[in-house]
Amino acid sequence: MNKTIIININSIVFHIEEDAYEVLRSYMIDIKKHFGQSEDSREILEDIENRIAEMFTEKIQAGSKEVLNMDDVNAVIEQMGSVSDFESEDQDGYSSFQQQSNADEFKVGKKLMRDPDDKVFSGVCSGLGHFFGIEAKWVRLLFALFVVIGGSGVLVYVILWIVMPLAITRADKMEMRGEAPNIHNFKRSFDEEMSGVRDSFSRGMDRTGDSVAKLLQIIVKVIGVFFVIIVGLTLIGLIIGLIFFALAILNVIPDVMDNSGPFYLMDPSDVPFALIAGFLAIFIPFAGLFYLLLRVLFDKKPMSNYLTTTLFLVWLASIGAIIYYSTSVAKEFKESSTIVEEKPLQKQAVYYLNENDIRVIRLKNGVKSGLGIKSENLSTYLRRNIRIRIERIDSLQEPYVRYEYSAKGNSYKVATDRASNIHYTLRQDSTSLVFDNAFQLNEGELYRDQEVNITLFLPVGTKLIINDKLEDKLRDISFYECRDRYSEDLSDVKDVEFMVTSLGLKCALSPKKSNDNDEVDAEDSEVAANDTSIVIRRDTIIKVKKDGVTVETKKK
């Protein structure tokens, strides 16, 4: 009496004798040890187990029995082959195994099945090709002729599609090709399949990589061409700028040394060298970048080492020159000095403030009045940094004017000398105060933040009529707001009337009344009252109404 064991192979339950089970168990262990080392061992092990399950099922059905014995297991192992058959390195052993495999292959024959790996519609033609040993393309051509000639090819194809089973498992595909479904052929088929997958994947990756690389190459080239155009236009702009400044230095076009030019802070003799240094410091890096882009895009040859070294040394020299000129100019603004001068004014009830254009030459008794500057470029020595302020003093004090001349230099003495060399004139006649529209520097004097601050100290109650030419020079005065209070067309308003009050200079006209006519600005109410109102503080707002007077401050 033999002991029976129940086993499960590929989800199929079998009853097997104990001794036969031990042989089968050892056989499966050898297979798993051999194929377990590969990355995709699970698939081939499943195929082998599936084939063994099919063979056991065939033997049970053929022998009309329920228990597998030793003979059944040995027959399956003999047909499947052992691992040692293809692991041996002995050539004779390998040859004998090949002969055995070929013999088995001859005995097995071929099965008519549809090939799922080589199909156009269902794999019928490729299955017929495997069965008859011809290429699938000729079978497809034959079916196409049948379709064209009488249309019978379609009917035959549909019938074969229904009748022919699909080769799903690896064993089915082997039998479709007439190969024995043993371990050796399983492994060979699996290796060929994996090799084909890897090759296809590698080719696909190569094609994908090539496509991506070509796309990226096109994108990079488009971006590169764009930058080449930008850098090229920059180089052209630099050359045009150099020509422009060179012509300006030669007095062919307006001078770059005027108030709006970039070189008016420098000594005129240093301007050409600074211009060249600045040009080279910017041009050489852009030229190098331009050539580098051309090299990358169009495979140009690199510059010679001699030329590269020379350009680099020239660039370093230009950078050094820029640093030298920049520090030289910066030192000239190190110290500052201010000279204050006060002069009395004739006391008048009304002052007319106007401006004099010193560039206009006037004749007095047939004699021309000039500025005494021989230079052709007068604007180089005229500056318009003038500020005018008006402050109140007690009505009993005498009016006066304060001049503040300021300048900078590399030392306090130099700054003081520059401030003392500022020439500015304020003339007073019987009715007017006439301010020059610019102050004059000595010929050859460079701009070093020279400016003039003029402060008029006028008694409370003094009336001023200010011309609009002084609007840009007035400080702490809302000239436009006062002019807006005139009812006439503003373009015709040239003179605006102000009043010196205890709050400072205020517009002499009251603001335009609102619809309710209830509120009046506190400052203008004070002016209308001729400085008789009591002022609490500057930020106080006084509202005069029919029922009384209210006083508002910032706090309440």
TrEMBL record:
InterPro entries: Phageshock_PspC_N (IPR007168), PspC (IPR052027), PspC-rel_TM (IPR054321), PspC-rel_ToastRack (IPR054319). Keywords: Cell membrane, Membrane, Transmembrane, Transmembrane helix. The chain crosses the membrane at residues 142-168, 222-253, 273-294, 306-325. It holds the Pfam family Toast-rack_PspC-Cterm. It is found in: Cell membrane. It comes from the Bacteria. It is a single-pass membrane protein. Its main location: membrane. Residues 110-166 form the Phage shock protein PspC N-terminal domain. Residues 378-508 form the PspC-related ToastRack domain. Residues 198-333 form the PspC-related transmembrane region domain. This is Phage shock protein PspC (Stress-responsive transcriptional regulator). The lineage of its organism: Bacteria, Pseudomonadati, Bacteroidota, Sphingobacteriia, Sphingobacteriales.
